[in-house]
Specification:
Blueprint: H1 2-15, E1 20-21, E2 24-25, H2 27-47, H3 49-55, H4 61-90, H5 92-113, H6 130-160, H7 168-198, E3 200-201, E4 207-208, H8 210-230, H9 244-261, H10 283-298, H11 303-309, H12 315-320, H13 327-333, H14 335-357, H15 364-392, E5 402-408, E6 414-418, E7 422-426, E8 430-431, E9 436-438, E10 442-447, E11 453-458, E12 464-469, E13 499-503, E14 517-522, H16 533-556, H17 563-588, H18 593-616, H19 623-634, H20 639-665
Parallel strand pairs: 5-12
Antiparallel strand pairs: 1-2, 3-4, 5-8, 5-9, 6-7, 6-10, 10-11, 13-14
Helix pairs in contact: 1-20, 2-6, 2-7, 2-8, 3-4, 4-5, 4-6, 4-17, 5-6, 5-8, 7-8, 7-14, 10-19, 11-17, 11-18, 14-16, 15-16, 15-18
């Protein structure tokens, strides 16, 4: 009898699609692992993306920054598309499956695009067909943006669907673990993928291992998809119920169109322009949209914060490449997720309660304003660091200038004359002290040998070149180092950012490589990466006060059924912020990077002032109270009564099921 009872209870749970372990649906464990792997995949790929643009595709800083932010903007626009597909057509489960397949294909495509040997026919370590690699990588990034953005609004909501109404405690625990997995995936991936990139790999030539750095995230995305599919039989899958965003858009559109039709002064004015939708739409929906629009109006200045924040992955990464550091370079990439995990509980449990005890009214909108100011201070800090870096950088030629360094491998000191009047005294196996700058391309070089040797050269505009004078100016010798009967080993530790020319004489084997002479073309970076830590601390503090508080405020000021609309609006502010960076990078063209940092800081300060004024005139509301008032005016049941009725029905249903079990036992 006991076995029959257990069997019946188990079958009832199975019919509902729920199996439990420690009070939690087993299905959520698949969802949590899926989220960890997906976030590892996304942030791991993004951690080295701008470096791939800069050092593999050989794009300049501005183009690399523009494409990076165009990709991030697309990642924050596609969630709207994903939400509409899930709610109106496929449902959350199928949307996650299909778009995860697109996502995985994108990651694999991106990894393939980084294999230089595919087009390296002459095996010199450099791709011969950059168009192929660019086209493949752009296709991969588009697919990744569609995938990661499309599943973003679905995964957390799908996890929430696995719980029943009475499991609010378990639901809160799930979301905490879910958020932890996001940060854990971000932390580990930003720590590991830069290390993978630093390895050397290749079929014919050994280069920085971009295939491994992008390949590991691709593998993690495939694992994420497999894990999610593995739990398919345990999920609670709800049918699409229609997308609230589409209803909101139609209601707003009708209100605008109806207002335009009745624009004549003969028609009486209405209290709010949304009231022009009364003829067609429910008053409760209109009241809810009014509350949402009130919050969305406050979103208008917010993109500027994201304009600064998301440059951590572009401008700040490029800034780090001009600095010195070894282990610290790995640490810097993980500063943001580490600080997030540290600062969120400190702010919530210590800082904010302490401010409240001091009697200060530190409202959510004031917190967001302070968060903006912290982000502005972070960019002032970045500008100060950049000024120190600029002091150590070489003076590169402008687009109309050329630079030349002369290296002497002759056995004696040489007097070198470069037209029209540049005279250099260069010791044997030495070089000119620095690059010589010319404002013209065509030069003539004369050596005071016997007889005098004169030769004309044409320089490249906007570039640096090295002229090597061979040991016998009349005969050019080629030296080949062979690993055979005669060989020697020469080692030199390079500094970050340094450039060297090594002069190898014909006697290199007889003196065990000691005759190799080093010419330093460019000094190593001397400003340490640790100086970036303050700006990361400031921007992360700003993120905690702005982003976390902003979402909490938004959700508290809008009806429950409108949270997806606010989520879409919030993501759009992030997308617009990245588009602003793209525009400034392509059109701004400021001569100094520190000036661009100060420009962004100044703009954010100005925007924070505007936002503080808007916040001053904002009146906090209780959405539930307003909804209850509208329901009362319409003669509808309060929402609480509806919930009680539903709960009573569910309770009756449970009692019927229980009674059926007892009958089976008898």
């Amino acid at each position: 009898n006991t076995e029959e009872e257990s069997s019946t209870l188990f079958s009832n749970k199975k019919k509902k699609g729920r199996r439990y372990c420690c009070g939690y649906p087993i299905s959520i464990f698949f969802i949590v692992v899926n989220e960890f792997c997906e976030r590892f995949s996304y942030y791991g790929m993004r951690a080295v993306l701008v470096l791939y643009f800069r050092y593999f595709l050989l794009w300049d800083d501005d183009l690399a920054t523009s494409i990076y932010h165009a990709f991030v903007a697309l990642c924050y626009l596609t969630p709207i598309l994903g939400a509409i597909i899930a709610d109106s057509w496929l449902g959350k489960f199928k949307t996650i499956i299909y778009l995860s397949i697109v996502y995985a294909i994108g990651q694999v495509t991106m990894a393939i695009s980084t294999i230089h040997d595919i087009t390296d026919a002459n095996r010199d370590g450099t791709p011969d067909n950059f168009t192929f690699h660019i086209a493949l990588s752009m296709l991969g990034l588009i697919l990744i943006a569609l995938g990661t953005g499309g599943i973003k609004p679905c995964v957390a909501a799908f996890g929430g669907d696995q719980f029943q109404e009475h499991q609010s405690r378990q639901l809160n625990t799930f979301f905490s673990v879910f958020y932890l997995c996001i940060n854990a995936g971000s932390l580990l991936s930003t720590l590991i993928t830069p290390v993978l990139r630093a390895q050397e790999c290749g079929i014919h030539t050994q280069q920085q291992c971009y295939p491994l750095a992008f390949g590991v995230p691709a593998v993690l995305m495939v694992i994420s998809l497999v894990v999610f599919i593995a739990g398919s039989g345990m999920y609670v899958k709800t049918d699409p119920e229609g997308n609230i965003m589409w209803s909101v858009c139609k209601c707003i559109g009708f209100a605008i169109k109806n207002r335009f039709r009745h624009r004549s002064s003969s028609y009486p004015k209405r209290e709010h322009w949304m009231d022009w939708a009364n003829e067609k739409y429910d008053k409760l929906l209109i009241a809810q949209i009014k509350m949402v629009l009130k919050v969305l109006f406050l979103y208008i200045p917010l993109p500027m914060f994201w304009t600064l924040f998301d440059q951590k992955g572009s401008r700040w990464t490029l800034q780090a490449t001009t600095m010195s550091g070894d282990f610290v370079s790995i640490l810097i990439s993980t500063v943001n997720p580490i600080l997030i995990l540290t600062l969120v509980p400190i702010m919530d449990r210590l800082i904010f309660p302490l401010i409240q005890k001091c009697g200060l009214n530190f409202s959510p909108l004031k917190r967001m304003t302070v968060g903006m100011l912290f982000a502005a201070m972070a960019f002032v800090s970045a500008a100060l660091v950049q000024i120190e870096i600029d002091k150590t950088l070489p003076n590169f030629p402008s687009s109309s200038e050329s630079q030349l360094k002369v290296v002497n491998t002759y056995s004696t000191t040489l007097n070198v004359t470069i037209s029209p009047n540049e005279h250099l005294l260069i010791e044997s196996f030495g070089s000119s002290a620095d690059y010589v700058t010319f404002d013209h391309q065509d030069i003539t070089v004369s050596l005071n040998t016997n007889p005098v040797i004169t030769k004309a050269f044409s320089l490249i505009k906007g570039g640096r070149q090295t002229l090597i004078i061979p040991s016998d100016p009349t005969v050019m010798r080629d030296f080949v180092l062979r690993h055979g009967e005669q060989w020697c080993e020469f080692s030199r530790k390079f500094g970050f950012g340094a450039s060297y020319t090594f002069l190898i004489p014909s006697t290199v084997f007889s003196d065990d490589c000691e005759s190799i002479t080093e010419v330093e073309d460019m000094k190593p970076n001397s400003v340490h990466m640790a100086l970036q830590i303050p700006q990361y601390f400031l921007i992360t503090t700003g993120e905690v006060m702005f982003s976390v508080t902003g979402l909490q405020f938004s959700y508290s000021q809008a009806p429950k059924n409108m949270k997806s609309v606010l989520q879409a609006g919030w993501l759009c502010t992030n997308a617009v912020g990245n588009i602003i960076v793209l525009i400034v990078a392509e059109l701004g063209k400021l001569p100094k990077q520190w000036a661009e940092y100060l420009l962004f800081a100044s703009l954010l300060v100005a925007v924070s002032i505007i936002f503080s004024i808007m916040a001053y005139f904002y009146t906090y509301i209780d959405p539930a109270e307003i909804e209850a008032q509208v329901r009362k005016e319409q003669g509808l049941e309060p929402e609480e009564m509806e919930k009680e009725t539903i709960e009573m029905e569910e309770k009756d249903e449970d009692q019927k099921n229980e009674q059926g079990v007892k009958q089976t036992k008898i």
